[in-house]
Amino acid sequence: MSFETISKRGLVILGCGRMGGAILQGLLSGGLPAHSVHVIDPHPSDWLKSTNVQLNGTLPDSPAVVLVAVKPQMMADALPQLEAMAKGDTLFLTVAAGITMAGYERMLGDQTRLVRAMPNTPAAIGRGVTAIVGNPNATPEDLETADALMQGVGQVVRLEAEDQMDAVIGVSGSGPAYVFHLIEAMAAAGEAEGLSADLALQLAKATVGGAGQLAEDSPETPATLRENVTSPGGTTAAALEVLMDPETGLRPLMRRAVAANIARNRELGK
Question: Is 128 a known ligand-binding residue?
Fold first, then answer.
């Protein structure tokens, strides 16, 4: 499905908060005409009002795509108003966490053409990563459309099955929060050792940002990059001895954190 088709038939966005807004911004920057976008949002931001999209107005009967970007807790109230669209050839693309394809099919009907997508918050600056997977009704063209739409906010990967989505949410969907906390922890450690709060935070942010970019751009594995900056018996090795402790180190801690994330996500999906 081309941007021309979406432009002619229309794109409906249900909820335009941070993630929906980031996706919309990417689409508009990519050339999608604002007048072809219909947004349903009871509390539109000033930025959304300035985009010239059609806001809280009459919706097309059979839009090309419906982007579902409301919070999972609001889904049961928000989706029924779009149920008629699910009976046609409209693609439903959802970026909400927690709700399974079966859950959407209960609300919209089992004939719905659906693609689940899980982006993360760096999508707001075009540096996100999104995992997508379609239900049995979704065609290869639907997946291509979802892929193209989500590329406007970063990289896209395709999953083999929906049951992989929980792990995606646990690793990349919520992952930015883990990294932000790492920055907080590094800055606090620097401050505890005598640096000013501002300097410690600047160093921590730049270090995490630079190391992340290096890891993404380098052909070497993260393990090799780590080894490259670790001299035997040196200062980095002393720190890594703590961080890599098999019982109390970062790896078992991260396993517990991701497991807790997945457990909570499954609770929300019930």
Answer: no
DSSP 3-state of 210: helix
Residue 144 and residue 61 in one domain: yes
Residue 200 domain boundaries: 175-268
Asked if residue 56 belongs to a known ligand binding site, the reply is: yes
Domain count, the chain: 2
Model confidence at 125: pLDDT above 80 = yes
Residue 119 lies in a domain: yes
The answer to the question of whether 176 is labelled as a binding residue is no
pLDDT of residue 42: 86
Q: Are residues 113 and 243 in the same domain?
A: no
What is the per-residue pLDDT for 121?
A: 87
71 annotated as belonging to a binding site for a ligand: yes
Last residue of a domain, one of 162, 191, 218: 162
Find out whether 19 is annotated in a ligand binding site: yes
Any idea what the CATH number is for the domain that residue 192 is in?
A: 1.10.3730.10
131 belongs to an annotated ligand binding site: no
